[in-house]
Structures are given as C-alpha cells and as structure tokens.
Amino acid sequence: MKERLLVLAKAAPEASQKYEELICVAGITDKGEWRRIYPIPWELFLKTSASRFRKKWWIEYELASDKPSDYRPESRKIKFETIKPVREASFKEIDALLSQRVQTLDEIGEKGVKIQSLGVVQPREVLDFLPSDNPHYEKLVTMGKQQDLFGQSAMKLNPPKFKYRYRFKDDAEGKIHENLCEDWEAVMLYINCERMRLAGRYPDEKTVHEKVRQKMLRDIFKQGKVYFIVGSHYRFPTFMIVGVVYPKKEDMKRG
Fold first, then answer.
1. For residue 86, what are the domain limits?
2. SS in 3 state form for 160-185?
3. How far apart are CA 78 and CA 62, in angstroms?
4. Domain count, the chain
5. DSSP secondary-structure letter at 204?
6. If we measure between CA atoms, which residue out of 216, 217, 162 comes closest to residue 194?
7. Residue 239 region, left (φ>0) first, then alpha (ψ -120 to 50), else beta?
8. Residue 250: in which H helix or E strand, if any?
C-alpha cells in the first residue's frame, strides 16, 4: 500500500542498540492524517542517496503495514527502500494545511498519546532557546569508540554535547511551556557552530550558544509564521518539538 507524506519534521538521529543511527520523520499525508514513520536509516539523507529528501517535501513510499507500529496511532513502519521524493511544497501550501490544525500543547496533551501523539502548535511568544547538557553524550561518545567489522567507528555521526529547549507561550492565558527541540536542523546548527569553535573561529562555548540562539530565537521569526511540530516520546508520555517549520526568504518571494 502506497502513501504520500508532506514531511514537516525530521528529528535528530537516535542511536539504536545495534549502533545504527535512525531518524524519525513526521508530517501530514495526502489524506490529511498525521503520520510518523520510523525507523529510517540516516544514510538515506546523504547527498548521494537517490531517496534523499528534506522538510517541506512530499514523498511517496510503501507501508509495511497499514496498522500502527506502536501504541501511538500515527506511527507506521514503512519499506524505507521504496521512498521516492515527489516535489517540494511551497510555504503557502504548508501554511494552509497547518493553520487549520493548530492546537495548544495542553489541548494535545489532554487527549492522551494513545489518541493523539502528533500535532502542531503556533507559539504566540517565544521567550528563549536554552542549552542544556545532553544526558546521553558520554554514553554516545563511548559507543562511538567501538569499531565495526571493518575497523571503523560504529557510530557515524557525532553526538551533540548540548541540546536545546524552547520556552514559549501558545495560548491567551500566557502559560509558559519549556520543551526540548529535537529538530535535526537545530541540532546540526549547533554541531556546525561547535566545529567552528574547535577550528578557532569562535572563541568559546558561550559564542556557540549565542550563534545558535540568534538563528533559532530571532532570525527564523523575522519572515513571518513559525510552527512547532510536536510529538510524544516513545518511552515517555512527554512532548518534544520534533520539527520547526518556518518560511525562508525564497518562500516569501514565491508567495
């Protein structure tokens, strides 16, 4: 059974017990349903991969089953080798789909993750984008020192030493939420800035955090609407921001 999905979230890679780095992708199908497809090997996102796709793209794939793959109703396992990029969506198209589905974080959470574990929140006010220690960093570094059968590092991607969380308000009452941001774009922004620090282009970690905050707290909000795609963790009934969707300059020119 084939399905089309508008990709709205690519969460940062997670390391499995087999040292595989897997990606969780989420979005809305052409039938208007929220969907989470997992696991997807990170190699599919290499520039050399024919199946490579980004956020804001429609993709097509075959489902391994049309039934949920876990207790969350939106989850499906797919035949990842069947993924085909179809086309990039305009922000106008994305905005039309998301604007009619906006909820508050409390409204989503009150339903329970067995009823709804994916949704979209539109922040009314964003207060901060804060770094925090990655509790799994040391373990992932140790895993990275392990070697595969070919004498290469078992872990192909560098784990982030820090993760970030948004502090924001999403309702008229002004309740403040603080949620971890697992958007892969944000994680890679930190990793790239950290590489520049190690290369001597940034003086310290404080500068790295400020560069990340400049982009994720200020720059992306200059173009207009920003949406947070939120999803519940598999092991814990807590919600994370798995995708940050915003218009870029070229999106605004297209209209």
1. 2-92
2. CCEEEEEEEECCCCCCEEEEEECEHH
3. 6
4. 2
5. S
6. 162
7. beta
8. helix 249-254
The residue to which tokens 């497809």 are assigned: 37
DSSP E strands in the chain: the ranges are 2-10, 14-15, 21-29, 34-41, 57-63, 75-76, 78-88, 118-121, 125-133, 162-169, 176-181, 227-232, 239-245
Provide the residue-wise pLDDT of the chain in tens; the chain has 255 residues.
Answer: 899 999 999 988 775 444 356 788 999 999 999 999 977 877 777 777 777 888 999 999 999 999 999 999 999 999 988 999 999 999 999 999 999 999 999 999 999 999 999 999 999 999 999 998 876 544 544 444 454 444 454 445 577 889 999 999 999 999 999 999 999 999 999 999 999 999 999 999 999 999 999 999 999 999 789 999 999 988 877 899 999 999 987 776 655
The DSSP-derived string for 80-113 is EEEEEEEEEPPHHHHHHHHHTTB--HHHHHHH-T
Q: Does 197 share its domain with 148?
A: yes
Among 92, 119, 142, the domain boundary falls at: 92
Distance CA 135, CA 162 (A): 9
pTM, entire model: 0.89
92, 120, 140: which is the final residue of a domain?
92
- Asked if the structure places residue 98 within a domain, the reply is no
